[in-house]
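Standup notes
- DV: blocked on the single-chain target, sequence here:
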Amino acid sequence: MMQGAGHAVCLGPDIDTDLVIAGRYLRTKDHSQWVAHVFEDLDTSIAPRLMGAIIVAGKNFGGGSSREQAAIALREAGVVAVIAPSFARIFFRNAINVGLPAIECSLPCLNDQNIRFDLTSGWVETSGKQFPIRPLSPRMQEILSSGGLVNYWKAHQ
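- DV (later): unblocked, structure below
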């Protein structure tokens, strides 16, 4: 997905993968269980608001463990993209690899405001104002356009 839009769900800085999906729920591979418990230890009101959402967070989103399930849980919950000034590198790559755009940008946030983005042109827009983003490499853009790394490799064999 190179372009997208959604409503904002605002989070603070330093949201680690344990807050995205607690380890106690990872004994199952049933993604619907993960979706039901996303951000449960942070705020139980967040999960029901994630369908069609763009998460706008503070710095260092996705720190902590390197679990790929955090990015999968967000994607399966209907998150369109995650925007933050910085990401833990492993979360960033996990997100791209599962087809979830991770967009590096400092963005003011109000819950439920409309946000649009264009990864090819390199901007995020909210309240009629565009903000530049850190560009993704052409390979990362191809992976996202393919819907994730597995689909990318299937298409290139």
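- Follow-up: The chain has one domain: 3-155.
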